[in-house]
Design brief:
With 179 residues, the chain is an alpha/beta fold. Helix content is 32%, strand content 24%. It has 5 helices and 7 strands. The strands form 2 sheets. Strands 1, 2, 3, 4 and 5 form a 5-stranded mixed beta sheet that branches. A two-stranded antiparallel sheet has the order 6-7. Strand 1, helix 2 (45-52) and strand 2 (60-67) form a beta-alpha-beta unit. The longest helix is centred in the C-terminal third of the chain and has 18 residues, at 115-132. The chain is globular and about 40 Å long. It starts with 13 loop residues before the first helix and ends with a strand. The relative contact order is 0.11.
Protein backbone atom coordinates (compact mmCIF):
# COMPACT_ATOMS: atom_id res chain seq x y z
CA UNK A 1 0.00 0.00 0.00
CA UNK A 2 1.40 3.36 -0.98
CA UNK A 3 -0.08 5.12 2.04
CA UNK A 4 -0.06 2.40 4.68
CA UNK A 5 -1.12 3.64 8.09
CA UNK A 6 -0.36 1.88 11.32
CA UNK A 7 -2.88 2.36 14.10
CA UNK A 8 -1.91 0.20 17.04
CA UNK A 9 -3.92 1.98 19.72
CA UNK A 10 -7.35 1.02 18.28
CA UNK A 11 -8.42 4.64 17.88
CA UNK A 12 -9.61 4.29 14.29
CA UNK A 13 -12.72 6.14 13.20
CA UNK A 14 -15.44 5.36 10.67
CA UNK A 15 -13.59 7.62 8.21
CA UNK A 16 -10.42 5.53 8.70
CA UNK A 17 -12.35 2.34 7.97
CA UNK A 18 -14.02 3.84 4.89
CA UNK A 19 -10.59 4.83 3.55
CA UNK A 20 -9.18 1.41 4.46
CA UNK A 21 -11.96 -0.32 2.52
CA UNK A 22 -11.11 1.78 -0.55
CA UNK A 23 -7.41 0.93 -0.24
CA UNK A 24 -8.14 -2.79 0.18
CA UNK A 25 -10.28 -2.84 -2.95
CA UNK A 26 -7.66 -0.89 -4.93
CA UNK A 27 -5.21 -3.60 -3.87
CA UNK A 28 -7.70 -6.18 -5.22
CA UNK A 29 -8.11 -7.87 -1.84
CA UNK A 30 -11.44 -9.60 -1.31
CA UNK A 31 -11.94 -9.86 2.43
CA UNK A 32 -10.81 -8.83 5.89
CA UNK A 33 -10.43 -11.14 8.86
CA UNK A 34 -11.20 -9.37 12.12
CA UNK A 35 -10.12 -10.73 15.48
CA UNK A 36 -13.47 -10.98 17.25
CA UNK A 37 -13.46 -9.21 20.58
CA UNK A 38 -16.55 -8.57 22.69
CA UNK A 39 -18.15 -5.21 21.97
CA UNK A 40 -17.05 -3.84 25.35
CA UNK A 41 -13.40 -4.37 24.29
CA UNK A 42 -11.59 -1.69 22.25
CA UNK A 43 -10.53 -4.44 19.86
CA UNK A 44 -14.10 -4.47 18.51
CA UNK A 45 -13.90 -0.87 17.27
CA UNK A 46 -12.79 -1.45 13.66
CA UNK A 47 -15.03 -4.51 13.24
CA UNK A 48 -18.00 -2.38 14.20
CA UNK A 49 -16.86 0.44 11.89
CA UNK A 50 -16.66 -2.09 9.07
CA UNK A 51 -20.17 -3.34 9.81
CA UNK A 52 -21.42 0.27 9.80
CA UNK A 53 -19.73 1.16 6.51
CA UNK A 54 -22.31 2.18 3.94
CA UNK A 55 -20.11 1.32 0.95
CA UNK A 56 -18.21 -1.90 1.53
CA UNK A 57 -17.43 -2.01 -2.22
CA UNK A 58 -17.60 -5.81 -2.29
CA UNK A 59 -14.97 -6.19 0.46
CA UNK A 60 -16.21 -9.04 2.65
CA UNK A 61 -15.15 -9.84 6.20
CA UNK A 62 -14.95 -12.83 8.52
CA UNK A 63 -13.97 -13.41 12.13
CA UNK A 64 -11.21 -15.04 14.08
CA UNK A 65 -12.79 -15.85 17.43
CA UNK A 66 -10.53 -14.64 20.24
CA UNK A 67 -12.54 -13.24 23.14
CA UNK A 68 -16.30 -13.37 23.37
CA UNK A 69 -16.65 -11.87 26.85
CA UNK A 70 -18.88 -13.08 29.64
CA UNK A 71 -18.97 -16.66 30.86
CA UNK A 72 -19.24 -19.71 28.58
CA UNK A 73 -21.38 -21.43 31.19
CA UNK A 74 -23.99 -18.64 30.85
CA UNK A 75 -24.55 -19.12 27.11
CA UNK A 76 -28.30 -19.55 27.69
CA UNK A 77 -28.64 -16.37 29.77
CA UNK A 78 -29.60 -13.67 27.24
CA UNK A 79 -28.12 -10.80 29.25
CA UNK A 80 -24.65 -12.36 29.69
CA UNK A 81 -21.93 -10.88 27.44
CA UNK A 82 -21.04 -14.35 26.16
CA UNK A 83 -24.62 -15.00 25.06
CA UNK A 84 -24.89 -11.53 23.49
CA UNK A 85 -21.69 -11.98 21.49
CA UNK A 86 -22.59 -15.54 20.50
CA UNK A 87 -25.87 -14.21 19.05
CA UNK A 88 -24.03 -11.41 17.19
CA UNK A 89 -21.53 -13.81 15.66
CA UNK A 90 -24.24 -16.21 14.53
CA UNK A 91 -26.30 -13.37 13.05
CA UNK A 92 -23.30 -12.03 11.14
CA UNK A 93 -22.48 -15.44 9.63
CA UNK A 94 -25.50 -15.02 7.33
CA UNK A 95 -24.87 -11.35 6.53
CA UNK A 96 -24.35 -10.65 2.81
CA UNK A 97 -20.90 -9.17 3.55
CA UNK A 98 -19.65 -12.16 5.58
CA UNK A 99 -16.95 -14.14 3.72
CA UNK A 100 -18.10 -17.54 2.48
CA UNK A 101 -15.93 -20.41 1.24
CA UNK A 102 -17.78 -23.02 -0.77
CA UNK A 103 -20.99 -21.32 0.38
CA UNK A 104 -20.12 -21.73 4.06
CA UNK A 105 -19.17 -18.85 6.39
CA UNK A 106 -15.44 -18.84 7.21
CA UNK A 107 -14.77 -18.91 10.95
CA UNK A 108 -11.27 -18.95 12.43
CA UNK A 109 -10.53 -19.92 16.03
CA UNK A 110 -7.40 -18.62 17.77
CA UNK A 111 -6.01 -20.31 20.87
CA UNK A 112 -2.82 -20.89 22.81
CA UNK A 113 -1.10 -24.24 23.13
CA UNK A 114 -2.38 -25.52 26.45
CA UNK A 115 -5.07 -28.15 27.00
CA UNK A 116 -7.20 -25.65 28.97
CA UNK A 117 -7.07 -23.07 26.17
CA UNK A 118 -7.78 -25.74 23.56
CA UNK A 119 -10.79 -26.90 25.57
CA UNK A 120 -12.14 -23.33 25.93
CA UNK A 121 -11.70 -22.63 22.22
CA UNK A 122 -13.34 -25.90 21.25
CA UNK A 123 -16.22 -25.09 23.60
CA UNK A 124 -16.62 -21.72 21.82
CA UNK A 125 -16.56 -23.56 18.50
CA UNK A 126 -19.18 -26.05 19.69
CA UNK A 127 -21.40 -23.24 21.01
CA UNK A 128 -21.17 -21.38 17.69
CA UNK A 129 -21.91 -24.59 15.77
CA UNK A 130 -24.93 -25.34 17.98
CA UNK A 131 -26.32 -21.80 17.73
CA UNK A 132 -25.72 -21.51 13.96
CA UNK A 133 -26.95 -24.98 13.08
CA UNK A 134 -25.49 -25.03 9.57
CA UNK A 135 -22.11 -26.06 8.14
CA UNK A 136 -19.22 -23.61 8.47
CA UNK A 137 -15.74 -23.49 6.97
CA UNK A 138 -13.60 -23.64 10.12
CA UNK A 139 -9.89 -22.99 10.63
CA UNK A 140 -8.02 -23.43 13.89
CA UNK A 141 -5.11 -21.01 14.50
CA UNK A 142 -2.48 -21.90 17.06
CA UNK A 143 -0.80 -19.09 18.99
CA UNK A 144 2.39 -20.55 20.35
CA UNK A 145 5.74 -22.11 19.70
CA UNK A 146 6.23 -25.84 19.16
CA UNK A 147 2.80 -26.86 20.39
CA UNK A 148 1.59 -30.41 20.70
CA UNK A 149 -1.09 -30.83 18.03
CA UNK A 150 -2.20 -34.31 19.09
CA UNK A 151 -5.13 -32.89 21.09
CA UNK A 152 -6.40 -30.96 18.05
CA UNK A 153 -5.82 -33.93 15.78
CA UNK A 154 -7.95 -36.03 18.13
CA UNK A 155 -10.76 -33.48 17.62
CA UNK A 156 -10.75 -33.85 13.84
CA UNK A 157 -8.47 -31.06 12.66
CA UNK A 158 -6.24 -32.06 9.76
CA UNK A 159 -4.09 -28.95 9.47
CA UNK A 160 -2.25 -26.70 11.82
CA UNK A 161 -0.89 -23.20 11.72
CA UNK A 162 1.54 -21.12 13.64
CA UNK A 163 0.33 -17.60 14.25
CA UNK A 164 2.84 -15.14 15.63
CA UNK A 165 2.07 -11.53 16.40
CA UNK A 166 4.63 -9.08 15.10
CA UNK A 167 6.20 -6.94 17.79
CA UNK A 168 9.27 -4.73 18.19
CA UNK A 169 11.29 -7.61 19.67
CA UNK A 170 10.66 -10.39 17.17
CA UNK A 171 9.91 -10.84 13.51
CA UNK A 172 6.44 -11.99 12.54
CA UNK A 173 6.06 -15.33 10.78
CA UNK A 174 2.94 -16.84 9.25
CA UNK A 175 3.08 -20.36 7.92
CA UNK A 176 0.73 -23.25 7.37
CA UNK A 177 1.87 -26.85 7.58
CA UNK A 178 0.08 -30.05 6.76
CA UNK A 179 -0.23 -32.67 9.47
Amino acid sequence: FDRRKVNTDWQGTQAHMDEFIQEMRRAKLDFLNFLYYADNNQGARMRNHYKSAVHKRGLNACYTIVQMGGNRENKHIPTDDYSINLARIVQDLDAPWYQKIDGKPAVFYLTESTPENYANTLQDRDNIREAYGKPMYEVFLELGYNPDYSYLESKGYNARSWYYNYDDHANGDHSLESV
